[in-house]
Please model this.
Amino acid sequence: MKITCIRSHVLQYDLPEELGYSQQFYARRTAHLVEVSTDEGITGWGECFGPGTVALANRTIVEKVIAPMVLGDNPLDRDVVWHKVYNLLRDHGQKGMPLQALSGVDIALWDIAGQVAGLPLHRLIGGAHRTSVPAYGYGMMLKRQSVEDHITRFRDEAAAIRAMGFVATKMKTGLGARHDVRLCQAVRQGVGDDFDFMVDANHCYTTPDAFYVGRALEELGAYWFEEPVAPEDHDGYRELRAGLSVNISGGEAEFNRWGWRQILENRGLDIAQPEVCALGGISEYLRVLALCHAHFTPVVNHVWGSAIAVATNLHLLAAMPPLPGGLNPREPMLEFDTTDNRFRDALLTEPLQIARQVAANAGRVAVPQGPGLGVVPDRAFLAHHAIDA
Ligand code: CA
Model:
């Protein structure tokens, strides 16, 4: 069996309204899918993390750099392909876009392997520890509006996300530490006292400001405090984790086993959030998962992007062993963006219908059962949303 073609599909549309987080506002949604074709008629799909113009750069890496290295290789030799590409690109980037690009190719090779074996991805990995996964709904994005309007909207939106059936919710911060504490109070008010909420700062704080917000989160009983400081600030992470009782989470901007080894050995994370479409694909995710568990750090995958990324993560979350185990362990959750996402909701020939599942099944989502990823993009949808280089 041979790889005959590797093609990127970069999709984009204008969002119905502008959305923001602590770093920027954005008005378009982008997705980058990777299609790997073989000489036996089997096609695999993957996805690369990276919004906007980053997706265009990653497309060039996929099609002009990685594809020539691996055309003609056996797609079932996915670990051989991974190391061949990584070793040849090492001198040009051990993190960031080369790894994002490799991730999409690697995920597609696992999709092919599942189809050849006739097994869903979760069984190929080792089996399902759970047949459905609880989902948390994130929303409460920043907008160009006043602090007071943010507060009212966050309280109402938090209540609305709980009413949709999700098992927990997650908010953004980024108006400045003092205003942000008021946003967190509003979200606690919105969801009530008996519901988990999490706070995502997208690394906008200095360590002292993160302590200020973190102490308020202890009072409010937030479940986790995500990316409080810059991902390179290992000292800040370690000090925050040692000084706060709220769980410190992060890792979506970290890559491969060597990057993860550093942040785990630094002891700055209570909860690890690896991004399979960025850190190096499924092959590398499984090694990072093992590293996290070796450090007794529970994992809740970072999930972003299209239905390909969501399906991949549903398999990975199903196949994740409980840590540390027990009758009633904390289960990993599926991250679900409640804002408009056509690439998740309308991409597939048979949509996953996650919001409907959440509403009907007490916040839980079924794991796909078809071979490989078990999902197929609709060709007409791809053609309609594709953008040129
Ligand atoms: Ca995040």
Q: What stands out?
A: The radius of gyration is 20 Å.
